[in-house]
Amino acid sequence: METEHLRTQIQQKDAEVRMALETKPVEETEDKVIAASKFKFKRDMDMFRKLQSLKFTTSPQAQSEVQAIEMSKTSDALVIEFGFDLAHLAKSSRHYNLENNEDLKGFRRLVIAQKESEEKAEFERAQPSASIVSSLIAEGQLLGEPQYKKDGTMTFDYFLETSKVVIKYTHEQTAEGLAEHAIKRRAAIAAGNEEEFQKLVLATANWEQLTNTLIQANLYQALKVPKQVFEKSAQVYLMDPSKRTVYEEEIQALRDSLRERTIVELTREQVMDSVRKLEAAKFEAQKKMYEFVRSQRVAPQMINAVIKVEKLKADDHFFNETGIEEEDVEPSIKRLGLEEDEEFKAIIEEFKKQSDDFLASKKDETAAMMQKARAAQYAMEMKRKAQLDAQAKANEESKGAAAQ
After folding, report:
1. Which of 92, 203, 225, 304 could pair with 220 in a Cys bridge, judged by C-beta atoms 3.0 to 4.6 Å apart?
2. Rg of the Cα atoms in the chain
3. How far apart are the first and last CA of the chain?
4. Does 137 reside within a domain?
5. Residue 203 in 3-state DSSP?
6. CA–CA separation, 233 vs 152, rounded Å?
7. For residue 262, what are the domain limits?
8. CB atoms < 10 A from the CB of 191, how many?
9. Could you tell me if residue 331 is inside a domain?
10. Domain co-membership, 354 together with 392
């Protein structure tokens, strides 16, 4: 709401400045100015919808830049359609006192009611069911009283465990809808409709993020964890490369355990081709994330949302190109024992070197942070591999002892 209020203030100030600079006399009829005002108001609502679609993935500063661009487009559209720009429209509206025009006021009420109806529908689509909320709170309460540190954050373990509960019930609420969204996005790619695809990607990410936010709010409210404590905890832990790596490993393991569709077994050739394509996509996403993090100082939740958007795009293009779901690749790597395969290791090393070289070339704080994150992730992968190897060895020894 604060952002919308600020946006309204900016629009009003912009109109005042434009009118002050306008010197052309008002010669248009009142009816023409009313028609132009309705035209502008419709475009304002389209701009609002566009900004709403960016709310989870774009910083307030970048949104202001988008708004300025859209207002410039509206001014140009007015010139083409009516022969005058925004500045002249502002002056003409004052000239005819259209602020009190009943026709325009009725039109505005109608469009605003439509906007509010869209917002309500969006909220209701993301609202968790009563049974989800009940189960969510019951499971959260099993974790015991909230655990805090002296710096005003939750302990990392409590933050991680509550995050898992949120992810679990977000999955339960959204799994079916996400599958339906994927079908529509991939159809848009197949049809060559890039604009529709980008719009659907944002719609998917925003719906899932809003659902996650509402479930999160229900849980922390029930556990009596203040919003500012959660936000500070997320800021501290998700911007710390080592903690973030542990967090992502744990969350990914949870997501894997929640997967319901049957894994498709791939051939060695399919896996090698898939790994090369996925590593290339991961590298491109890393470069995009570097530019995003460097240019926009944003909260960790927004970084997560942008990562989600880029992953949706990459997974959809990968599926349409190969017919393979990204989540089927890793199980086949393990089933075929490819972690020690020389060709597999060469592909991983090739893209690791590209990533390291890219970050080393930047020589700034953002690159250093991302390099630390990558190093922490690599260390975690090695630890996880060692644990799996030890478990496999123990299983073999157990089988041998049983055979004797």
Report:
1. 225
2. 26
3. 71
4. no
5. helix
6. 8
7. 150-325+339-403
8. 10
9. no
10. yes
> Could you tell me which residues come within 8 angstroms of residue 215 by beta carbon, excluding any fewer than 6 positions away?
128, 132, 133, 136, 166, 169, 170, 173
d(CA 1, CA 278): 39
Q: Longest Cα pair distance anywhere in the chain, in angstroms?
A: 103
Q: Specify the 3-state DSSP secondary structure of 148.
A: strand
Domain assignment present for residue 134? The answer is no
In a shared domain, residues 89 and 165 = no
Supply the pLDDT for residue 69: 94
- The answer on 161 and 93 residing in a single domain is no
- Would the pLDDT of 238 be above 50? yes
Burial of 5 (0-12, 13-18, 19+ CB in 10 A): exposed
Average of per-residue pLDDT across 388-392: 62
- The per-residue pLDDT for 387 is 63
Return d(Cα 319, Cα 274) in angstroms, integer.
10
Are residue 199 and residue 277 in the same domain, yes or no?
A: yes
What are the tens digits of pLDDT across the range 282-291? Answer: 999 888 888 7
DSSP H helices in 54-101: 60-82, 86-95
**Residue 154 pairs with which residues in a beta bridge?**
148
173 and 50, same structural domain? no
**Could you tell me if residue 11 is inside a domain?**
yes
pLDDT in tens, 96-121: 999 999 999 999 999 899 989 998 99
Task: Measure the CA dihedral 232/5/3/151, to 10°.
Answer: -10
Number of alpha carbons in the 13 Å side-chain half-sphere of residue 319: 18
Nearest residue to 313 (alpha-carbon basis) of 210, 403, 220, 181: 181
Question: In the chain, how many domains are there?
Answer: 2
pLDDT at 302 over 90: no
Whether residues 165 and 109 fall in one domain: no
Model pTM score: 0.76
Whether 1 has a pLDDT exceeding 50, the answer reads no
- Say which residue, 402 or 358, is predicted with more confidence: 358
Answer for the pair 136, 128: CB distance below 8 angstroms, yes or no: yes
Given 68, 102, 122, the domain boundary residue is 122
Provide the pLDDT for residue 287. Answer: 87
